Amino acid sequence: MVSKQKVLFVYKGNNCRSQIAKGLVNKMAAEYFEVYSEGSLPSRVHPNAISVIKEINIDISNHTSNSVVEYLNTGIDIVITVCDDAKLACPIFPKKTIKIHWSIDDPFQGWDEDEQHLTNFRVARTKLQDHIKKFINETELS
Asked: Are 4 and 32 in contact (CB under 8 A)?
């Protein structure tokens, strides 16, 4: 059995993009990756993130918003920042960690669950899916 690589998605608030990315990788490649998400300023998982990922049959309703300090000494192999603020604020991990950055526009428009805001979350979900498919293919080839 091949050991799984530990992948950490980093987003400043850990409420939207990193949560969606974690759900996607868990669905698409859980046999290859142990996936985490965190933020420099964690809060809670946005209801719209839960809604748009549920549209594609992935449940992230049990995800929690976590702080980066929880993962500094856990042997993370790959850190993927999904917003420009997170890239700037991402700490240095103790072991040699591969760092990847994806600049995904923030779907957050406030905490309301208004239908009109779901479009932003769907766009972020689609962009993350595209990046993750490419990431999985490239990682499996190496």
From this structure: yes
Task: For tokens 């700037």, name the residue.
Answer: 88
Alpha helix ranges (H) inside 15-71: 17-29, 47-54
What gap in Å lies between CA 44 and CA 57, rounded to an integer?
Answer: 21
Beta-bridged to residue 10, according to DSSP, are 38, 81
**pLDDT tens sequence across 91-138:** 677 668 888 999 998 887 777 777 777 999 999 999 999 999 999 998
Q: How far apart are CA 100 and CA 79, in angstroms?
A: 6
Q: State the distance between the two ends of the chain, measured CA to CA, in whole angstroms.
A: 17
Structure tokens at 78: 């790959």
**Which of 4, 3, 83, 80 is CA-nearest to residue 37?**
80
Structural element, H or E, at residue 100: strand 98-101
Cα gap 83→22, rounded to integer Å: 14
Give the helix/strand (H/E) hosting 7: strand 5-10
